[in-house]
Amino acid sequence: MHLHWFRSDLRIHDNTALDAAASQGPVLALYIITPKQWQQHDDAACKVDLWRRQLIELSADLSRLNIPLLIRHCDWWQDIPGVLLDICQQYQIEQVHCNAEYAVNERLRDTAVQQHLQQQHIGFSSYLDQLLFEPGSITTKSGGYFKVFGQFKRVCQQHLYDQLPQILPAPEPQAILPIQSDPVPQQIAGFQPVDPHIVQCWPAGEAHGWQRLDDFADEAITDYAGQRDFPALSGTSQLSPYLSAGIISIRQCLHAALKAANGELFGPDEGINTWITQLLWREFYQHILVGFPQVSRHQPFKQHTAKLAWRQVPDDLQRWQQGQTGFPLIDAAMRQLQQTGWMHNRLRMIVAMFLSKNLLIDWRLGEQWFMQHLIDGDLAANNGGWQWSASTGTDSVPYFRIFNPITQSQKIDPDGTFIRQWLPELAHLDNKSIHAPHLSRSVKAGTLDYPAPMVDLATSRDRAIAAFAALKN
Ligand SMILES: Cc1cc2nc3c(=O)[nH]c(=O)nc-3n(C[C@H](O)[C@H](O)[C@H](O)COP(=O)(O)OP(=O)(O)OC[C@H]3O[C@@H](n4cnc5c(N)ncnc54)[C@H](O)[C@@H]3O)c2cc1C
Fold it and tell me: Which residues have C-beta atoms less than 6 Å from ligand 1?
């Protein structure tokens, strides 16, 4: 008997390890709920709930294939080798299959499991599935990991031209096994119940992921380059929660884009090319995580920025977290995050830069807040995005290029539609005043239930530039 251990690959279609397990014999499936470890990793309650809801769907999908899904609980990953060995011995498992995960703790966990099982002569196989390319296979001429995205992308492109990763079907139903699936819990201990609105925004199930992907590929992908920066439009796929839980696969995304491009990889359609490029950013940050593991240990990629004199200002941090900065676009974005578990990419960059530059607050505090609230929270992408915005990362924004949240607001939300959606207290303002009510002559002082700006943009910008410039000395 073979065991497929599900982690962030909660689907039956195009699942490399599940396919390999099923092709070698009868399969049993396992998921391990590890609440304390997830809390230590700052996994958001809404994300853990999406995993839980997806387990219900997955269990039903697996039952149609006659694959029972066992569910086990242990607090910490260090307990997993023992849990797995018990199952292997109970069900006479000869080999455990899983899809590789790349962060440091994940890799340590898998090495410990492999060693523990090997001592009992039980096989352990880990497969490339989450990514298009094995980390370490896209390298510079001297064999190192790329630090610059453009160069990384060019090599990926060449590999895709040479060999396009294919999509696998779901396994065929197997003969019925005399083993019962375990019930999926109603709630995960230690995580708050999730607002029904968030559940509604992000329904579980592979079919929902495919629907989103198909709709995006049919209706929006060709406009992606022009619309992706406007948060009031549905210009992006909103697939990140599905990709990060593995409800859909990266290959399914790539093939949907290719289909929209009539099979032509990096052809003339700018929208499709830009979207595939974003998929490669996802890939890039995962490779960075493996090549430069210090980034998943709370270290900046650019070591010299570790000395930056961040301000210790918990009250300012709290105003940013709660969407009370007095800058409408920032506050609308932070409230979108709290109320939906998701934030538009452009806004992630703007709020991250505001925290790390204008407020000069350590980017790691923002990274943690995002992780605690994002339904798509992903260590590699989140860390990459934060280090990009804070100018501490590889190929990151130069420290002196700081977004101005008011001009950004005028540019990407010109008529204030996005701000009005999330800040009803400003909804009555005209299209000009809404971006900076405190500067508007048409807004009488003291008439708004909305805070004044918490910093002066010009002086806080200069302060950030000076702090970064001081690192050179
Ligand atoms: C500060 C900051 C934090 C971020 N944290 C996360 C995170 O925790 N999880 C996460 O998935 N993404 C993160 N991102 C990247 C990006 O914002 C989201 O992937 C994107 O907003 C998801 O929306 P979408 O699915 O509509 O993306 P689309 O624009 O439709 O892109 C398609 C897919 O490509 C990937 N992708 C797109 N842009 C990026 C990027 N810049 N970096 C890595 N992958 C990308 C995502 O998987 C996304 O679903 C972060 C970006 C920043 C600036």
Answer: 228, 236-240, 243-244, 278-279, 281-282, 285, 345, 348-349, 352, 370, 374, 376-378, 381-382, 384-386, 389
